[in-house]
Amino acid sequence: MPKLISSPNSALSGRVRVPGDKSISHRALMLSALAVGRSEIRGLLEGEDVLATATAMRAMGATINRLGAGHYEVFGVGVGGLVSPDDVIDMGNSGTSTRLLLGLIASHDITVTMTGDASLRSRPMDRVTVPLQDLGAEFSAREGRYLPLTIKGTPRPLVLDYSPPMASAQVKSAVLLAGLNTPGRTIVREKVATRDHSERMLTAMGADIRVNDEEGVRVVSIEGQPELSPIQVDVPGDISSTAFLLAAASMVPGSDITVKNVGLNPLRTGIIGALTAMGADIEVEDQTVLGGEPVGTLRVRAAALTAVSDLAVDPSTMIDEFPVLFCAAAVAEGVSRFTGLEELRVKESDRLAAMAQGLAANGVQVEELPDGLVIHGAGGRVPGGGSVETHLDHRIAMSFSVLGQMAKAPVTIDDASPIQTSFPGFTELMTGLGAGLKT
Ligand code: S3P
Questions:
Q1: How many A from CA of 104 to the centre of ligand 1?
Q2: Range of the structural domain that residue 133 is part of
Q3: What is the number of the ligand 1 atom nearest to the C-alpha of 166?
Q4: Where are the extended beta strands (E) located within 106-251?
């Protein structure tokens, strides 16, 4: 396992771009694979998770050609045109690939067996298999809810009207994607709005998607069996990857960095509000809309951070950014209390436990709650000197790489390899800005 050692080097400075948005990249591949004709994608994230989606779509009949760095063409099979792969599909570390594809497959008359790495095999799939069973798909999963699993899609899918019990864009998207090949109107009712990349892209491809607010519930519906037009997608930079840069530049004294072409979908930008509430100095410049998604440039300068309360953080607009926000809280002045975050326990790792262990190992006073963390900020550099277990979780690895920039003794990350799932080039980009990271 390649170790990563993080320690302060210099203030961070420079202008950079981060790799393409992971959520949009997955959807661009899946949906263009169902269009009729040739789609073109630029800026696709070439991380392992998205490449797993490409492999799966190829195995189910789509033609996907790499034309250059992040530049792909996709010849779709049309809604209803997926075929059974001739082997097990390995989804690697990617929960988004697995859950969204289970939705797509559920309303196709095909059979697919999926597996993944140890992290993915420990993540619950019943959150999508339960609603998709009602549509008529059949599942055989390890212990009823884990990979490896086999899905047998149905040739006669029934429309669903589903209210997910948890806030999850993956569950919403799985049901909507199942609705693509289901005659009639499939409905998802969200108590808490989640990222709407699926809705935006499907609308751009000509699907009949409606979004209504019914007494505070976001009701999304899709009319089945559309002919999807091919698309040209320019994938913006991933705000969830940018989050590591925002936190690092805010924390390290004297820093001043600019990140260009960042996706600023309002259901993703909670990290900007949360860091700003802690005193961060983040300016949003050059806002525009690219392919139906808002994008802009972010300039971040170092600032004295203070503790953040629950109220300042809107969990409907951020989820994957909490680990690095916890690191910012560890160097902030005062006690931060985060609650209502039980979903973090079913990510690539149990992120509450992994963060609590890693912070404690580096001398940060932290209390783990069933649904959150209480973090006693050091008001500057944390002691550091500890070793962090990443548990196959890219965001744990990158979060502690950031914390090490504000540690008195180096922070050791036991395994840097998971970073490849979402942020290829992370170490080089960070060291280019001035961070102290050694493999
Ligand atoms: C994602 C949704 C989120 C997020 C994940 C990507 C998506 O998961 O954590 O990294 O692309 O829809 P949940 O739906 O489980 O919150």
A1: 16
A2: 22-234
A3: 16
A4: 111-115, 138-142, 146-152, 161-162, 185-190, 209-214, 217-223, 232-234
